[in-house]
Amino acid sequence: MTLEPVIEKMSKRYFNVVNPNDVVAKYGADTFRMYEMFLGPVEMSKPWDTKGIEGVYRFLKKFWRLFYDETKGWIVNDETATNEELKVLHRAIRKIEEDTERFSFNTAAVHL
């Protein structure tokens, strides 16, 4: 017999409320906002999972390290983008713009 975890709605009645200020203090506002976006459409009810917030936090740290090194500083250059790089950039911009117009922030976040 396997037990599957029960995911409940956050509620004072169940004493499972997470204070957003505590999450922001520990992980930062960007992590909190991105976690909310990854969960799905804004208007839907979603289960809260602290492990998920930790995953988003690790994702953002990894993403940050693509552009910034602790010892070297910024890892960027002034080279002109190739045509292929520009195509990828414009595809991502178009997709994010379409997702934002539909309030589908969860899918827009994936394209970053």
Outline the structure in words.
By secondary structure, this protein is mostly helical. It has five helices and two strands; from the N terminus they run αααββαα. A hairpin with a 3-residue loop joins strand 1 (68-69) and strand 2. Helix 2 (29-39) crosses helix 3 (50-65). The model has no long low-confidence stretch (mean pLDDT 83).
Give me some keywords for this one:
2 strands, mainly alpha, 112 residues, two-stranded antiparallel ribbon, 4% strand, 5 helices, single chain
Strand and helix map with partners:
Layout: H1 20-27, H2 29-39, H3 50-65, E1 68-69, E2 73-74, H4 83-101, H5 105-110
Antiparallel strand pairs: 1-2
Quick rundown:
It contains 5 helices and 2 strands. The mean pLDDT is 83. The protein is mainly alpha-helical.
Helix content: 40-55%
* Mean pLDDT value: 83
The major pleated sheet works out as: 2 strands, antiparallel
Shape: flat
Tell me the strand percentage band. Answer: under 5%
Number of helices: 5
Runs in which pLDDT lies below 50 for 5 or more consecutive residues are none
